Amino acid sequence: MARDKAPKPDLVTRDYTIHLSKRVHKQQFKKRAPRAVKEIRKFAEKAMGTKDVRIDTRLNKYVWSTGIKNPPTRVRVRLSRKRNEDEEADEKLYTLAQLVEVSSFKGLQTENVEAA
Questions:
Q1: Core-most of 7, 28, 45, 51, by most CB within 10 Å?
Q2: Contact yes or no for 13/77 (Cβ under 8 A)
Q3: What secondary structure letter does DSSP report for 29?
Q4: d(Cα 99, Cα 72) in Å, to the nearest integer?
Q5: Do 84 and 52 touch, CB atoms closer than 8 A?
Q6: What is the pLDDT of residue 109?
Q7: What does the pLDDT look like over 41-59, one tens digit per residue?
Q8: What is the H or E stretch that residue 36 is in?
């Protein structure tokens, strides 16, 4: 007999730190930055449970800022699960990944962000 899980809150926003260097380790140089973007997408998909993940332009520029060979070691990301406005969309929700600029990654935890 399976226990009923409490329904997940529809719209939620959380801050995560993604360790990119362990995700692009042993990748050839010309595929590192594209792989980093794919890994951010994969992380967001798993964390938020939506297939539709949209990456903000500032986050994309940050990943590519040091070139194709050398993406940043870590990135702080704000993942927001939002409602899809398009009626014909396959899924009702999508995830928006945005860059959160921090001075240091030391001691940061996953945090829930209250919608302001």
A1: 45
A2: no
A3: G
A4: 12
A5: yes
A6: 93
A7: 999 999 999 999 999 999 9
A8: helix 32-48
Q: How far apart (Å, rounded) are the C-alpha atoms in residues 16 and 32? A: 21
- Is-above-0.85 flag for pTM? yes
Distance of CA 92 to the CA centre of its chain: 18
Q: Are 74 and 103 in contact (CB under 8 A)?
A: no
Cα→Cα distances 69→11, 44, 81, 93, Å: 36, 23, 31, 33
The string of pLDDT tens digits covering residues 6-37 is 556 688 999 999 999 999 999 999 999 999 99
Tell the residue number behind the tokens 């990456």, with chain if given: 55
* pLDDT-based confidence at residue 115 (cuts at 50, 70, 90): low
Cβ pair 72, 82 in contact under 8 A: no
- Residue 5 · residue 78 · CB < 8 Å: no
Amino acid at 49: G
Q: In sequence order, which residues have a C-beta less than 8 Å from that of residue 14 and are 6 or more positions away?
A: 47, 78, 79, 110, 111, 112, 113
Q: What is the dihedral of CA 61, 67, 68, 70, to 10 degrees?
A: -110
